[in-house]
Design brief:
heterodimer; A: mainly alpha; 11 helices; B: alpha/beta; Rossmann fold; 2 domains; six-stranded mixed beta sheet; three-stranded antiparallel beta sheet
Chain lengths: 266, 260
């Protein structure tokens, strides 16, 4: 049995391509905010450096964190916001009654998300180099597994958010933007886990992104041995991806039984 | 035996003792009906009668509480893709993405349905519904009549064997509604398509449907040809029957076979 047919995934991707390229506001959302984050946080970091220049890698930590967090955020939005796009254009019913599998729908959002992330990360990386002489390639080969771990975590969070929209309907739409920022404080994005209160540290260690950001800082500090970070992040990602896929299916079925799916798409 | 097999093959939709309740509220109360290949069946009823729930169950959007639904002999939820590949759906209340051109929307859906020679198919349908001049127009800028015809183009992209039409002529002026009705009748006859049609426009139903199912409070209260229903209830038009049923002014039912 073929779960994912490439022609159908391509059809869905074409639709997102048209939607994104037609809407100036969507492009603004995809490109403008990440670039603004980079510029503002880069300037703040430079200012702190001027006040206290004991740690010259502080700017790199911050800029790396901004670029990496954007990968996580974009990956989750590529699923949850793509779903909302269909909802808002009152097209979800047409999509639901077309012969496409949930796997094809999710796969197309993966492809669209990946394309967006590459484009935005490239723009941010070039800007970071031009404005602050921060070279993301300094992370070297570790960049790829760190990137992939964030991508998978973002997709899992996106599926989780979409499942909550199935469950709670339109009132849960804001979660499509909010969830990554709810996780951010315990993901060690801008600071190491050791900064967190003792009682919160175990929670941070349950988040795959924590190991990615700790690993990124280790690499930027000159430590090339980050395999343990990568393995822990990958292990957690696999666990969450499976658990959230089951949760997603359960929420979809629950929405069908309660009639909530029909209310949502009509 | 041979007749049994033939009858089984020719049944496109089979609904047996279908029941759906939301908590204590009963939306559909053990209804049963069949639709044979090439039949055009009207599903009528006042608001809240259960027609939307029935259609949504057929489309796999709502799970039934009990009972059995089969389309082409398959469970539409378990064999969702196989069933949907041979069906299509159009509703006056469901839009195509507004910020895509008409041609782009149709091309995307043609890809989703795996249509071969997409360009030719889309051109044919746009010409058939006399909307080929709208191909490069943004879908969001179409009038109701144009939008309905483009939606019907989308609904016929995969040459569906079974087509669900939910009030396709709602919000159309009489001229356009008449054109749409005639086109639908023509396409249905040419392709021997099976159609389940819901409408509050009784003229649509009388002109297009060979058989009518009247739903009331979740039950099928009448089933048969328009003529049989009019004769049974002693009314002049289906609209009068509709009103009488909606106002609980009928005391008898007309169920399958009674009119034969």
């Amino acid at each position: 049995m073929i779960l994912v047919r490439p022609d159908r995934v391509m059809g869905l991707c074409n639709r997102y391509f048209y939607i994104y390229t037609r809407s100036g506001f969507r492009l603004l959302d995809v490109i403008f905010w990440p670039v603004m984050d980079l510029v503002v946080w880069g300037l703040i970091a430079k200012y702190f450096m001027r006040l206290n220049s004991d740690n010259p890698t502080a700017v790199s930590f911050l800029l790396g964190a901004i670029i990496f967090f954007n990968i996580l955020n974009r990956a989750q939005q590529s699923i949850s916001v793509s779903f909302l796009e269909d909802l808002w254009s009152r097209n979800l019913l047409n999509a639901f009654v077309a012969p496409i599998t949930v796997a094809e729908f999710v796969a197309s959002t993966f492809v669209v998300g990946l394309t967006q992330i590459f484009a935005v990360s490239l723009i941010m990386s070039v800007l970071a180099f031009c404005l602050y002489t921060f070279n993301i390639l300094a992370i070297s080969f570790a960049l790829i597994p760190l990137f992939l771990n964030l991508l998978f975590m973002g997709w899992s969070v996106g599926m989780f958010t979409t499942a909550l929209i199935f469950r709670f309907g339109h009132q849960a739409e804001a979660l499509a933007w909010a969830v990554p920022f709810l996780i951010q404080p315990v993901s060690a994005v801008f600071y190491p886990v050791s900064v967190l209160p003792d009682w919160l540290q175990p929670v941070a260690y349950m988040v795959p992104a924590t190991y990615v950001f700790e690993g990124m800082r280790a690499v930027l500090s000159g430590n090339v041995e980050i395999a343990s970070y990568l393995l822990k992040a990958a292990g957690l990602n696999i666990f969450y991806f499976i658990a959230i896929s089951i949760f997603f299916g359960a929420m979809l079925n629950s929405a069908r039984e309660r009639g909530a799916l029909a209310k949502l798409v009509l | 035996m041979a007749a049994d097999i033939e009858s089984e093959v020719e049944t496109i939709v089979s609904v047996e003792k279908l029941h759906k309740s939301f908590g204590k509220a009963v939306a559909i109360d053990e209804i049963s009906f069949q639709i044979k290949r090439g039949e055009v069946v009207g599903l009528l009823g006042a608001n809240g009668a259960g027609k939307s729930t029935t259609i949504q169950i057929l489309l796999g959007l709502i799970a039934q509480t009990s009972g059995k639904v089969s389309i082409f002999g398959m469970d539409p939820w378990k064999k969702r893709v196989a069933v949907l590949q041979r069906c299509n759906f159009s509703s006056a209340y469901v839009a195509l993405p507004y910020n895509l051109k008409v041609i782009e929307n149709l091309d995307v859906f043609a890809q989703l349905y795996g249509v071969s020679n997409r360009k030719k198919k889309i051109e044919e349908l746009l010409q058939l519904f006399e909307v080929d001049h709208l191909a490069q127009k943004m879908t969001g800028g179409l009038s109701s009549g144009e939008s309905t015809r483009v939606n019907l183009c989308k609904a016929l992209l995969n040459d569906p064997e079974f087509l669900l039409l939910d009030e396709p002529t709602a919000s159309l002026d009489p001229d356009i509604a008449d054109k749409v009705r005639k086109l639908l009748a023509q396409v249905q006859a040419e392709r021997h398509m099976t159609v389940l049609y819901t409408s509050h426009n009784m003229r649509d139903v009388q002109e297009l449907c060979q058989r009518v199912l009247f739903l009331h409070q979740g039950k099928i209260i009448a089933e048969g040809s328009s003529e049989a229903i009019l004769s049974h209830f002693g009314q002049e038009t289906l609209e009068e029957v509709f009103i009488a049923i909606a106002r609980n002014q009928v005391t008898t039912s007309l169920l399958s076979g009674e009119h034969n």
